[in-house]
Amino acid sequence: MTIELSNTLDAIRKSLNGTTSRVERSKIGQFFTPTKIAKFMASLFQQKIQEVRILDPGAGTGVLSASLIEALISKERPPHSIRVVAYEIDTGVIPYLRNTMERCRMICRDVGVSFYGEIRSRDFISDAIAMTEEGLFMTHREYFTHAILNPPYKKINGESTIRQLLYSAGIEVSNLYAAFVWLTARMLAPGGEIVAITPRSFCNGPYFRRFRKGLIEMMSLQHIHVFESRKKAFGDDAVLQENVIFHAIKETMKPENILLSSSEGMDFDRTLTKSVSYDRVVLPGDRDAFIHLVLSEEDNLITQKMNRFKTTLDHLGLEVSTGPVVDFRAQKYLHKRPVKGTVPLIYPIHFKDGFIQWPAESQKKSNAIEALKQTKDILIKADYYVLTKRFSSKEEKRRVVAVVYDPHLVKASVVGFENHINYFHAKGRGLSPNLAKGLALYLNSTLFDRYFRIFSGHTQVNATDLRKMRYPSHEQLIRMGAHMKHHMPDQETVDAILRKECENGD
Predict the structure, then answer these.
(1) What mean pLDDT, rounded, does the chain reach?
(2) Distance from first CA to last CA of the chain, Å, rounded?
(3) What is the pLDDT averaged over residues 321-341?
(4) pLDDT of residue 372
(5) Is 342 in contact with 370 (CB distance < 8 Å)?
(6) What architecture is the 2-295 domain classified under in CATH?
(7) Architecture of the domain delimited by 313-504
(8) In the chain, domain spans
């Protein structure tokens, strides 16, 4: 019966993926979980409890709940009773969810386990806040022993009712998936367990700082599984996010070690697993509470090499900021071609061979911005700077792409850096030529790029992420910069220059 149920649910998922609009599902951030992933997630639960209470927010067709129930009743000592509360607002899939609940009731009956399933076709966030917030309007509080979820992946509009509701509850998040996980954790009983599949993006970056800190304070991370391929976890939905599955227990005591595992896709029989000190995953004293996922010996070797560099941007007297020109806000001041009264406006399209090539031929992007009193605050004095792209394409070869802004190559007294660019500066001033070139070489090295991929699971290169990195010393960067003349050396040469500095030190 259990094999039949799994096969049926996977067939339903594929059918729904083929017949329902991907656009419509993306509006609510809905991506159905393949059965293989659901079964792996269910296998991660540890506690042996006789009275099981399962929470499944954003349940879809119920594959996660069904997989967990199959795992629980297959144990040598199955629980006495199982209660499931499944939230789902998509009326199109609720009939399938009802059918799954009935099938779960039947397989539980066959092994003598009491089962009760409840479907709530209402907003999970509103319900969860009402049940967990202390106050006059608090509703009956429920506690769950197990929570399994594939939460919706969708950005939260800053002016939306949901954002205001979350903010009033002390939950500051930028994406629905983080809100679902945070609220689910609050609804767990002490010792309760959560297993969730989410984008990896929460592990670092400024937007998820409050969420990470809240999750780490409430929960004890036990296991994190990383999908090595962006394309494999939700291939039917063309989702290219890097995904992780994590298992955590609601307790304040942290384990000595945490399990880190990885697989290319859903081939969990070939999973690579290692036990790592908890303090290597969540560094003690890290105010940003970044989660570091060093998965392989190669990753470990790269991390060891990067650890040779001890210098911070602050020690170098440098800062990194996001380009201040937001083009759609300054639209009336922009020009496709430079004309009298304008200055250069730099986009990623101007990056070429390690320097800025301006102007550029483009049907979409501007090349110039008017230098007026109204734009004075978003323009920067021309000097040597290092620029990086803030966004790389889904499968771009390099995550970090850096160039030097050389004021001798772009004739202007001031310049505009568009918002899709990060720029390195010396407390608002420019860099020396060789320091800028050495920094660009370092950022374009294979070592830096691979370490950044270990450190960051998403395609966005945030200024906050770049601030957290370690860099060669001022003297090392100057020496490296002396090797760069009128273009960026080829990759092999860049790596050889950095390797020499790694070996020689200061």
Answers:
(1) 88
(2) 67
(3) 96
(4) 96
(5) yes
(6) 3-Layer(aba) Sandwich (3.40)
(7) Alpha-Beta Complex (3.90)
(8) 2-295, 313-504
